[in-house]
Amino acid sequence: MSPISTTVTFLKWLTAAVAIITPAIAGAFTSRVVHAFKGTSYPAEYPAAQAIMTGSILASVYFLSYGLFVVKFPDSLYVSVIADVASITALFIFFLISSAALSLDASLFARFSQTQFCQPYRDGGSWCQYATATVALGWFITGFLLIILILEVALTLDVYDAEYSAWRRRFGELFGDQEYRPTRRGREASAEEGRLMQELSRFK
């Protein structure tokens, strides 16, 4: 694969790996904060954390199924650039809202970090630590999704313009080892690359 395709693929697998471990962290936070604040006037439920947990499950399922389709059904519309961009955009918006909502309570988590309400459990850390980790993981996934989205959209537009036939193909096919006929801008870029290679070969 080309460096571009390899980079995007690596980011997708990295996002999937983070998304796989996030539900465990977010789940530990939601369960332990309920136990810590039970019988008090402080909020014990955080829907934003549950949203991050749900979104992480959806993201991991999507990226794992995407990888499966690339191997088994490489020509499927499911793994096309247009479908991938639409799915990642939806996940990005979901994580952006969820992470921002949970971040609003970060000051509350910090205030309780040194109190009796935030004592570590025998089998692990305190709910404050899990809360901070959940917020961080939510923003990490949000950032990864944004980078993937920018790379796929910007590079596809730059090389293939808005040609629909290109957007119906896999990103790895457009920028990988397989041949595909690009639009005028893509042909000009390929021609320029060829001229540069010829110039470099003269100095060898």
The residue ranges in which pLDDT falls below 50 over 5 or more consecutive positions are: none
Main beta sheet strand tally, sense and closure: none
Beginning-to-end CA distance, first to last residue: 26 Å
Amount of helix: over 70%
Counting DSSP E segments of at least 2 residues, the number of strands comes to 0
Which structural category do the helix and sheet elements fall into?
mainly alpha
In what range is the share of β-strand residues? under 5%
- Rg from alpha-carbon coordinates: 22 Å
Number of helices: 8
The domain count comes to: 1
What is the overall silhouette? Answer: elongated
**SSE order, one letter for each helix or strand:** HHHHHHHH
On the 0-100 scale, what is the average pLDDT? 82
Organism: Cryptococcus wingfieldii CBS 7118
Keywords: Membrane, Transmembrane, Transmembrane helix
Transmembrane segments: 52-71, 78-102, 136-160
Protein name: MARVEL domain-containing protein
